[in-house]
Amino acid sequence: MIEPMSPATPFTARSTAAEVVRGVDLGGRRAVVTGGASGIGVETARALAGAGAEVTLAVRDVRAGEHVAAEIGGRVRVAPLDLADPRSVTAFVAAWDGPLHILVNNAGVMMTPELRTPQGWELQFATNHLGHFALATGLHRALAAAGRARVVALSSVAHLREPVDFDDLHFRVRAYTPGVAYAQSKTANVLFAVEANRRWADDGVTVNAVHPGAVLTNLTRHMSREDLDASIAGGHYTFKTPEQGAATSVLVAASPLLEGVGGRYFEDCAPARRHVPGTPGGVADHALDPGAADRLWRTSLDMLGTLGA
Fold it and tell me: Any catalytic annotation for residue 176?
């Protein structure tokens, strides 16, 4: 079991992305933020650009991305990326030139009805994990060339609910449940961080997973009004603003306090404790299991390899 602790930070669940990069100079650094046209992706990009980084918004909706880039100002550019389409990921990687210092795997879908890609992959797993896996591995040389690069994989507290079911990743046997599929994809995000950090540490690349917290953004569009109202009224979550939701991603991506720290899971701008059943938060043992992390890596390579991706 990987020990989930790492250096403490002075920031909290109420800190904003702008606060965690105050005084941080990212001049000369290049960053990619997937899903940077909406929600916490916008605030992640805004904070990184405000600290001096050149930021690329990797988005499905290029027009929306261009609107955000113009609103943020500075050195913010836009590039098309559809994580559910391996050809789109391959094209993005092929078009990238030069080093990459920060990759924030922020985009995602949640609680979708049962949908599949043309390859037959369950959409939440394909988008949240496989697409980002293909992107990060495709950009590995650019990350290694940067020196002290960082990769941030956005996960969720939902990962506590389900491990990865390697026998039925795409719900071909078990009944499809939106919440279970989402939870599995979020566990996959943490396992990716564990294994990528192990494999890439010698290249100076650190990889961590983060839980941004509950934020009412476009990500919740597939949830029913009744489920949202119940979550709010029942106090199941303490909701954050998008600026607060982006804080943990930006902290892990840019703070000097976390130099050299990798293979961890962060929440509320702090390293997460080990989850204790019956209590909220923390990181599940099944998400830090090195055996599962290695198996997921090899399985993902096999799946993408059948497409030549």
Answer: no
